[in-house]
Amino acid sequence: MSDTPTRPRLSLREFEVLRAVISVRKTTAAAARLGISQPAVSRAIKHLEERLGKTLFNRDSGRLVPTSDALALNEKLEPVFEMLAGIENETFVSQHSSKPLRLAAPPTISHRFLLGVIAEFIKAYPGQKVELEIGTSSDVRNHVAEGHADLGITDGLSKHAGLTLEPLRSAIAHAVLHRDHPLASKAFIEPEDFDGQDFVALTRRFPVRAILERMFAERGIRPNIVAESSTAVSVSELVHAGVGVSVLNPFPVARNHPETLVFLPFKPRISYLNAFILPATTPSTPIARKFIEFTRAFEIEDPYSTPA
Known about the structure:
Number of domains: 3
Number of strands: 13
Shape: globular
Order of helices and strands: HHHEEHEHEHEEEEHEHEHEEHE
CATH class of the largest domain: Alpha Beta
Structural class: alpha/beta
CATH topology of the largest domain: D-Maltodextrin-Binding Protein, domain 2
Organism: Pseudovibrio denitrificans
Protein name: Transcriptional regulator, LysR family
Domain HTH lysR-type: 10-67
Keywords: DNA-binding, Transcription, Transcription regulation
Family: Belongs to the LysR transcriptional regulatory family.
């Protein structure tokens, strides 16, 4: 019998951590995706590096940049995780496909983001039915709280005793302008830039409308409101048509007309948080939890928002 001490084996969980950090480049975001703590992510990466004798990540401006060794290891792991995902999908669908996933979301998130995720989810889980209810953020909260939807997604964060919130993506407000607008060449936009400008506003049920009106009033600024709308998509379409300028949550409307619309940071900072909402009084359904995991892993190409 050998007296050589047995070294701890590498675990599948540690490889999951590696892949998550490569994907999102931050330990906090990787922890949120995997449902574990940030220190657990850091320990897993440290253990992998010690066992492999290789540096897997370098730090650059607060982000973790994978080394060539990390990328090579991830490539070797790809078929393993594809096989595991296939087994998991077959088992999950056989158990839950008879129960529809009931989703609720406002129009902008639904049409510019969620439908793409739903399409890929249905392809990944054949036989799984999805029901999507589209309404105002208030409608979405009520649907989930009253049990008419398993899961909601919204950027309206009003407190509701019957709901719990799980962050998805965070962003800051951006001014949206046509590329030919005189202000489009600026690095950022301030309230004073809107004085006398034709402005397309969201209706007053949106919190950002009250925030902007207060800023304008305090500074004596008077934008010329030429149109109001109840969705960010329609506001961006009016800006695209050259009607005026606006201030919006860039996620996910910044995907609209990238060839003609310019999104510039708005100062003072206005923060947004797009989040999942779930019933607070009952456990989340397995299919809702599966959709949350699927959405977090969905590749989102959006330079104006980050995983929350």
